[in-house]
Specification:
This protein has about 240 residues and is mainly α. The chain contains eleven helices and no strands. About 40% of the residues are buried.
């Protein structure tokens, strides 16, 4: 009976109008379902694509675990779980950069491309965390550095080395690369926008300040699951060739 009571006490209560908590819960379930789908489909692919699909599953699984904690944090304190969100991003965003490298290996991508993109992503995230949680008085400066790192990633995949490798690969690889590029350009744009809405700076007068956790939750699910589905589709097409 004691164990049952303890287990029940771990379940956080959500109000019917708690849309932020609801989207945290939905995000967690969606990410977990996507992880199961990717993991269970591994055996149907050639070895060269299994790593890519496995990484897709890891991205959504890591996010699902963090969303479980983020939902409980929000329910308990009514505050945006900034720390947990950034820990999630620090683990999953470099893995999403890894996906670009893995699909471009067929075109001769070198590990220097991988480490360059991972470095950009970590600079983007660490400086973003500094501005949002550690040094909020200098949010504008830290946000600028984070934004520059983000645009370096955008440049690399649209016009830089990654783009050239995708063109040389052609076919399904080029098609998948272009879709992933749009995810980064459009889907990831919610994150700098959310940063500006969650911190004080010169932009506050134009955009205002407000809680964007619902948008973050929806964007996270679309971006991470969508990334994985693009990789999955590429693996399916390549296995048929």
């Amino acid at each position: 009976m004691t164990n049952l009571s303890y287990s029940i006490s771990l379940v956080s209560k959500m109000l019917p109008t708690d849309y932020i908590g609801f989207t945290f819960f939905i995000g967690c379930m969606a990410m977990m379902a996507a992880s199961a789908f990717f993991f269970l489909s591994l055996n149907q692919f050639d070895k060269k694509w299994r790593t890519s699909v496995l990484v897709s599953g890891l991205i959504t699984f890591i996010a699902a675990v963090h969303y479980f904690y983020m939902r409980d944090y929000w329910s308990a304190f009514g505050e945006s779980p900034t720390f947990f969100r950034y820990v999630d991003w620090v683990l999953t965003v470099p893995l999403m950069c890894l996906e670009f490298y893995l699909i471009l290996k067929v075109a001769g991508a070198k590990t220097s491309l991988l480490w360059k993109m991972i470095a950009y992503s970590l600079i983007m995230l660490v400086t973003g965390y500094f501005g949002e949680a550690v040094f909020p008085d200098n949010a504008g400066l830290w946000g600028l550095i984070s934004g520059i790192a983000y645009f370096f990633i955008v440049y690399e995949i649209w016009l830089g080395e990654a783009a050239k490798l995708a063109k040389s690969a052609g076919g399904s690889v080029l098609e998948a690369h272009k879709i992933l590029c749009w995810f980064v350009l459009v889907g990831w744009a919610i994150y700098p926008l959310g940063y500006m809405l969650g911190t004080e700076g010169w932009y506050t007068a134009m955009l205002g300040k407000g809680n964007v956790d619902v948008a973050y939750n929806i964007a996270d699910a679309i971006n991470k699951i969508g990334f994985g589905l693009v990789i999955y589709n590429l693996a399916v097409k390549s296995s048929k060739d």
